[in-house]
Amino acid sequence: MNAPAIEFNAIIKQNGEINAAFVEFPFSTEELFNKKGLVKIKAVFDNKVEYRGSLAKMKTDCHILGLTQEVRKQLKKTFGDEVSVSLIEDKEERLIEIAEDIALVFTQNPAVKIRFDAMSYTHRKEYIRWIEEAKKPETRENRKTKMVRMILDGKKGI
Q1: Helix (H, G, I), strand (E, B) or coil at 150
Q2: Number of Cβ within a 10 Å radius of residue 104
Q3: Burial of 25 (0-12, 13-18, 19+ CB in 10 A)
Q4: Residue 2: pLDDT over 70
Q5: Could you give the CA distance from residue 7 to residue 43 in angstroms, rounded to a whole number?
């Protein structure tokens, strides 16, 4: 049986001076999820925009949930606006689709694949997205080569 969704309304807050937003999670993650640190979640904002992310403690009194620019654009909301949040703990494994040409790089470099697989979901996703966002084929090739070097150098993310 799935736990019921946790629902609340919150004000979208700006993170410092940058174009980053979050809402405060008004409950105890320890009581609800038996976790003090990061809690992976699936959320729905205003009953229409779905998001997979994490509740995190970022030198804040309570856990916070980030709202990406993309989510805010879909909601047509910004800092200071109220948003309704419905969330559940995300216990599904977070998998990343890896294109054949990138998978080939891992096949040719087993040590890179081992290090890549040991990274967090977010860092793996960043690397793959960075390569896939390349507009030109030569840029994509350059990024694959750079990724190998960066991973072998111990760089966790882009």
Answers
A1: helix
A2: 12
A3: buried
A4: no
A5: 10
3-state SS, residue 147: helix
For CA atoms 84, 72, 55, 19, give the dihedral sign: negative
DSSP string, 25-39: --S-HHHHHS-SS-E
In this prediction the pTM is 0.65
Residues 20, 78 contacting (CB under 8 angstroms): no
pLDDT given at position 77: 96
Pairwise pLDDT comparison (2 vs 43), residue with the higher score: 43
Is the distance from CB of 27 to CB of 95 less than 8 angstroms? no
Arithmetic mean of pLDDT, 75-83? 96
What's the rounded Cα separation, in Å, for the pair 155 and 151? Answer: 5
- Residue 83 to residue 136: CA distance in whole angstroms: 39
Q: How many CB atoms lie within 10 A of CB 21?
A: 23
DSSP state of 138: H
DSSP label of 4: P
Q: Residue 150 carries which side chain, given as an amino acid letter?
A: M
